[in-house]
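ARCHIVE CARD
Drawer: 12
Card no.: 0347
Subject: one protein chain, sequence and derived structure
Cross-reference: see card 0346
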Amino acid sequence: MDTFWMTLRVAVSLGVVLALMWVLHRRATKGGLGAAKARGRRSAAVEVVGRHGIGGKASVVVVDVEGERLVLGVSEQSVSLLRSGPTPAPELTIVTGPVVLPTEPRTPAPATTADRFRAELERQEHATTGLPADMPAERATDAVTGTTATPLPMRPRGSARRPARAVVPTAQQLQGSVLSADTWRQAAAALRGRRAG
């Protein structure tokens, strides 16, 4: 019977301790103990607008705090107020109608020598084929079949067609090179000669 009462007392004590912890937790999170700190943090919203290093560990920082703009000088030892004033209001424009963006008249870029050469070449091609100058030669239609001629795609040269063959250098080409077996034999013989002598 003693073990029953002992177990009951331990269970009730544990329940009281857990209930007390729960009540304290609720009060701390809802507004009792930590509310003053949280309210203080929320009321003074600090926004860093810009920062510029001056030299070493010194810098100038522009900060907005509760509608006031502060210019602070920050060094390793201290923070000092350089200037303060009201926060400038953001410039807002209310648009009530259609917006027409200003455009500059486009002036044609001066033709380069390559552009002039290309234009002259096309003019000569059109003169020899009898096509109008404004029609590109690629879109010319065949008079007999009535089909449009389109240029064929070009295949890239090199490895796309066939793999390149590996070139194995000859012994004469490798002579005196680090890759030559004779060079390594001579180096080993020189090392052996130093050890023996």
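Annotation on reverse: The mean pLDDT is 75. The CA atoms of residues 110 and 116 lie 10 Å apart.
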